[in-house]
Amino acid sequence: MLSRTADHLFWMARYMERAENTARMLDVNYQTSLLPQSADAAEKGWKGLLSISELSGDFAKRYGAITARTVMDYMVSDANNPSSIRSCLMAARENARAVRGTLTTEVWETQNQTWLEFQRMVATGAFQKDPGTAFEWVKFRSHLSRGVTVGTMLQDEAFHFLRIGSFLERADNTARLLDVKFHAVDSEFFGAFNGNGNGNGRENVEYDFYHWSAILRSVSGFEVYRKAYRNVIRPEKVAELLILRPDMPRSLAACMNEVVSNLRMVSNEQSDETLRRAGRLRADLQYGRIDEILATGLHAFLTQFLDRVNTLGIGISRDFLVPVEA
Known about the structure:
mainly alpha
């Protein structure tokens, strides 16, 4: 396959996944903001969302004060924000258009219709009128895109590059979400709720539940958690579910399983090192234990994971995709 074609497919999938992830985080933050809470707590939630995407500096320069409305506008429809839903859906559609002949009609029409419908929703103010329904629509369109890809495309190299893009992006996002949300308890997380020992008081019970359930809901993991653990929501179990459980679709382990299996299908003589790095990262998750991870600090683990995923992405670009010009 031509490297340019592989590049468009890889990034088409990444941008679609990124749009869904952004919608998930915005939806949870919006729903949480409707609960009784102080202005400081509400602002902290929106700050955390910007931090996940590493956009705090850009937002501060252009918008100043953090409010629910300004952050929503910035993350939904701002054309100058490369991580906004608008930018992601447009980029996914443009990458799909560039390789129209490689995609099935159903995949192309799904991408194209998603972009056209999104423009109409922005023009009619749908995201301001009913944010929750609008975010559900974005998630549904992403699900539809993946489903149509799996259901209609020949499982050749094109298919594998789409899958690699999707799951590499998902792994990156889940790690960022965990890192920022666990930091919201104001300390490094070493296996107790709070490093200062302040997390077990009665006054924290409600915050405890809503904070951790919000994290789970943002990755469609609330019902999965109940089924897997059948007990109250505990931070260390949330971390275990989203890091080490291969049967949780959006966990780091599940994502790396998909990345490695699809990467193996397109491997060539120059990709041995990239495949080795991916396999090593998957093995660390496959044989890891949550108590060992928490003993050294969750932030340190997730920071290292993000660095390794970034290195893996660079390796994939070098081995298969269009080289980035210096």
